[in-house]
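The instructor's notes for this session suggest beginning with a concrete chain rather than abstract definitions. Hand out the sequence below and ask the class to guess, before any prediction is shown, which regions might be ordered.
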Amino acid sequence: MNTAIILILAIPLIEIYLFIKVGAELGALNTILLILTTAVVGIWYARYEGFNTLRSGMSQLVKNELPLYEIVSGAAIAFAALLLILPGFATDVIGIMLIFPPTRKLILSKYSNRHKKKNKSNNKEKDLIEGEYEDIEDKDGR
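After discussion, reveal the predicted structure:
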């Protein structure tokens, strides 16, 4: 089964389960306030980290370097902000992990290393070029 379909079905089920469990412990009003608080605080912190990433990227550009990590980090922060806006506790945990710089760097480096290993195995096949050649002489006999 496709991973996207599994995620589309699993995430709401996990969130509903967590709503029921947390709501039973804290009460309905406190659960709603907790969800709203995590959304507001998360968005505020995502904005703060986004500006830090933008500032770091600009300093990389001034040094005439490609701000690759800052670009990927900015995309991760935007995704984390989206996860924090969505109501739910599991998405909030993932969003918070992506917003904090140490965990974001750990997560991004893990996926970056996996991608590098995958590209190295693909590059071994790409280094070899097979083909045939034929000497063609010009009309002048060269």
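Then share the key points. Residues 28-62 form the longest helix (35 residues). The helical segments are 3-26, 28-62, 68-85, 89-99, 101-126.
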